[in-house]
Write a structure and sequence with these properties.
The protein has 76 residues and is α+β, with helices and mostly antiparallel strands. The protein has a domain at 3-38. 18% of the residues lie in helices and 20% in strands. Strands 2-1-3 form a three-stranded antiparallel β-sheet, with no helix packed on it.
Length: 76
C-alpha cells in the first residue's frame, strides 16, 4: 500500500494517505473525494542524520574529507 500526497479541490488542504487500490481516498478535513494527486520528491533510504554523522566521523578518522563541508572538517 503506497503513501500518496493529495490536495483537496474543495478546501485546498494538503495531506498524505496510505491508499489501497480498492479504496477511494477522501479529504480528512472536509470529506471531499475531488482530490488532486501531488508529485512528491522521494527520500533516499538510509540517509538519516545519525548515519551521515557516523559516516563523516569515520571519513575524518581515515582522512577522507573531500565530501565533507568545510564546517564539518576538524580544526587543525
Amino acid at each position: 500500500m503506497p503513501i500518496y500526497a493529495y490536495r483537496c479541490q474543495g478546501c485546498g488542504e494538503h495531506f498524505e494517505l496510505l491508499v489501497r487500490s480498492s479504496t477511494l481516498p477522501t479529504c480528512p478535513h472536509c470529506g471531499a473525494t475531488a482530490l488532486d494527486k501531488c508529485v512528491t520528491a522521494p527520500t533516499a533510504p538510509g540517509k538519516s542524520k545519525a548515519m551521515l554523522q557516523r559516516f563523516r566521523a569515520q571519513a575524518a578518522r581515515e582522512g577522507h574529507l573531500s565530501h565533507c563541508a568545510p564546517s564539518e572538517r576538524p580544526k587543525v
